[in-house]
Amino acid sequence: MPLYTTKDISGLTALITGASAGIGEACAYMFAEKGANLILVARRKEKLESVREDIIKRFPSVSVRCETCDISDMKDIDSLFERLGDARVDILVNNAGLALGTDSGDRVPVEDIQTMFNTNVIGLMSLTSKIASQMRARNSGDIVNIGSVAGSDHYAGGAIYCATKSAIDAYTDCLRMDMVDTDIRIIGINPGIVSGTEFSLVRFKGDSQMASTPYKGVECLTAIDVADQVVYAVTRPRNVQIAHIRTYCTQQGHAKYVISRK
């Protein structure tokens, strides 16, 4: 007999946003490895289908459904739920998010401010509200919000992005309190520097040279490192709720200002 029995998530269904690349894609593979069925959500249909095909080849026993949706667009979210119908979601991983630029907070274009808040905050909250109502009805489920250490490690050039991640931290904590009389678990995952994703390339609007700068000289976290934490949190026994996991790579002590580079 094992000393500790974790939760078996095989046969459960996880909906993952931003699943076409990076942390979301890594979560998809790790959930599939555990036998969970998947609903993969992202904007890029071709990339989603490619991820789906590969997962099915590796893990033929799981079901993988792809849904294109722009999480920053409320009409797209409504349309997504119309298509999902009565599909059950046992685990929601709110991973979709982005940063745009490193301008001074007073100089960030309004369009970029709106895009970051619509995607990182309003879209996440809207999607959660819809899923949470289903979870409440059956009194079970896990909601995982992928934040960032930038939510508390504020830095120059990150005014809007840090503000969105601070909002997610507050929302995660408050939602946990609001749902404390249920068996639904609310989990926050806040990683530091993660390499090998498209995050920095999006932030610097396709400038690959600028995008590589934050990762130079340091062994960063990887997408699979973060996905491992997500899977760890949702596989704890039902009486255990992981409130937050905050992770840096070994040579990092702050989102931007305390990093040892070789």
What can you see in these coordinates?
The structure is a single chain. By secondary structure, the chain is of the alpha/beta class. It has a single domain (13-247), classed as Rossmann fold (3-Layer(aba) Sandwich). Helix content is 41%, strand content 16%. It contains eight helices and nine strands. The chain has a seven-stranded parallel β-sheet, sandwiched between helices. A two-stranded parallel sheet has the order 7-8. Helix 1 (22-33) links the parallel strand 1 (13-17) and strand 2 (37-42). Helix 1 packs across helix 8. The radius of gyration is 18 Å and the shape is globular.
Brief overview:
This protein is an alpha/beta fold and 262 residues long. The chain has helices at residues 22-33, 45-58, 74-84, 110-138, 159-178, 199-203, 208-212, 223-234; strands at 13-17, 37-42, 64-68, 91-94, 141-146, 184-191, 194-195, 221-222, 244-247. It has eight helices and nine strands.
